[in-house]
UniProtKB/TrEMBL annotation:
Cofactor: K(+); Mg(2+)
Chain ranges of the Pyruvate kinase C-terminal domain: 360-472
Species this protein is from: Pedobacter nyackensis
EC number: 2.7.1.40
Protein name stated in the entry: Pyruvate kinase
GO molecular function: ATP binding; kinase activity; magnesium ion binding; potassium ion binding; pyruvate kinase activity
Catalytic reaction annotation: pyruvate + ATP = phosphoenolpyruvate + ADP + H(+)
Superkingdom, natural source: Bacteria
Amino acid sequence: MKPFHSRTKIVATLGPASAKPEVLYSMFNAGLDVCRLNFSHGSQADHQEVLDTIRALNEKHNYNVGILADLQGPKIRIGMVKDGGIQLINGAQTVITTKECIGSEERIYITYESFPKDVKAGEIILLDDGKLQMRVIETNLVDEVICEIVHGGILTSRKGVNLPNTKVSIPSLTLEDRKNLEFVLENDVEWIGLSFVRNAEDIIELKDIIKQRGKTARVIAKIEKPEAIANIDEIIAVSDGIMVARGDLGVEMPMEEVPLLQKMIVKKCRAASKPVIIATQMLESMITTPRPTRAEVNDVANSVLDGADAVMLSGETSVGEFPLIVIETMQKIIQNIEVNNYPFHPEKFLKPNSESFLSDAICDSACFLSKQTNAVGIVSMTLSGYTAFEISSNRPKALTYIFTSNRSLLNTLSLLWGVQGFYYDKFESTDETIQDVNNLLKKLKMIKKGDVIINTAAIPMEAKGKTNMLKITVID
């Protein structure tokens, strides 16, 4: 099985720099837990090759590395511009058109057909991650918008466009997203990321499609728009996980607000027992250098201290020069925090009116007992994975060992803080099963004689119901 490195998990985007089997295998062994496939780049054939490589490595080495398929969503871009880019001058005016053309200083093509209908005079347009800024002067509501350049510079082809003040009418699932969704569902990926989520309905629509296809993929809502922040409670409630996508979020909203928004979202996700990923520019300088900046080290460390389930790498591992060193560096930062000053067992309140209140209370009690007894592990059996999500959200110091007969769940659990999954299908009597899984952990040298273990289970075992039993075991 895959070596255990840290409780906080690492998600890494795969690309040309990391797609080779030998590179990917070394990244797995250095601490990579979940592979992200970014559908903003690459063809389905490219992604199929990477998917096959991940699955082959998992099977060959008995690993449970998960896959996150990240759909592009309604990403707005400008079209092609003339070679060398165009020089936008402060105070000058330009026309943004929905009629395809090669962009010049006077006229720029945008891929968003409803742009002239959606924007209003005075609204701000940001290009290339906010490096360039325009203001809408007027729109003909059909195919042209006249803009004044506020902050100019060189604009090159296919750069992204952000509209922080505009109510965008593009659906969350574009036609391209739907094609890619069919592809990832056919490949039975564990996690699907939905970009530019605005409200709970965006997530519900995607989950309905997954359900109709008879698949079990779980949905991660990417938070990167002001509307998502306004609807954050409803989005968390219907999502299976959250990604704080700080790149676009920091462009669409005042950048100084992002650090506190990150902390707020992590806190809400933990309260709801939903995993949360912190993403974007975590070790950005390592795309071209083998050492991070001190500010980047602090950023990763603070995300771990905030209580994130996972920290994510993008260009650092997809196109960077040092994908393996990046994983090793991030792992060192995480381990240093977890060994020296991690805030284990933060306060978490149960919801008495919840349908799962009694099971939640058992999981909460297991974590409390693990702290009181200095237990090395919390061992649980689950079919749905619910117990794993609940125990993980309590951030116990004891490691969480989850045994399941649901093979597809094992890779899903790779995203959860502190959780290690094991395949197990010999559920017999409660005492025999508990003894058996404890012996298995002992055989794997994860626990030893004299260690205290907290076991949870559902009685009767054969019913595979909700967790309702708690036992303290001293390993003999």
